[in-house]
Amino acid sequence: MLKVANLSKTYKTGDKALSDVSFEVPSGEVVGLIGPSGAGKSTLIRCVNRLVEPTAGKVFLGDLDITSLPRKELRRARRRIGMIFQEYALVERLTVMENVLSGRLGYVPFWRSFTRRFNQSDLDKAFKLLDRVGLSDQAEKRADALSGGQRQRVGIARALEQDPELLLVDEPTASLDPKTSRQIMRLIGEICAERDLPAIINIHDVILAQNFTRRIIGLRAGQVVFDGPPDALDDKVLTEIYGEEDWTAMRKAAHSDDHDDAALVKEERLAGLT
Asked: How far does the signal peptide extend, from start to end residue (predicted)?
């Protein structure tokens, strides 16, 4: 379980990115984190694993207080937190397999990581993960030869290679087309269910968040203004989070996409991808 208690972040410029944010994410729950640009979504994700240092508050992963750890212990704790990035963060000159295995770098001695020598058990796990994300036939291909959706699948496999207890996912669909975006969100949800893995997904697409997460947290100006199930995200709440918008038109456009999505699920099942 993840517990965030009274988390705040104020930058040296005086800008307040987060203000007294508190919530819990139990095992297996996938939370969509939504809000306008500048609401503090990415800052919150990065405060959880201390890529950004919070100004105040606590973050607990199980019984471990992440916010109080010295640097050496923080490195070990980060092995328990998988991170999936918007821009994939792959080493493009390396193969797909080598990128997935980089998820084990926090577990191996420096000399072995430098020479990229891994145990057979790590290799076996990486092959299984590539099969799970639909890339078993791409293991030896260089990362820079992949499509955006394939790169994001490599990023998911790499995060899972860590054996994480929590997934932090930062805008996983921002660079993807609508069809691929739905595939990636569905894959993340399925994997979290299979592994009883909690996840926070920072996502700008409200409809995707509603369709593929169990719970939504809405941020505005660094504060939580909504925390509840997707079906409670009505026009009034959306306006509180984002300001005035034609939400009816947005839903109509999304409804059209849903018909395409149903056909896509059928295709994937026939192809053995889900």
From this structure: none
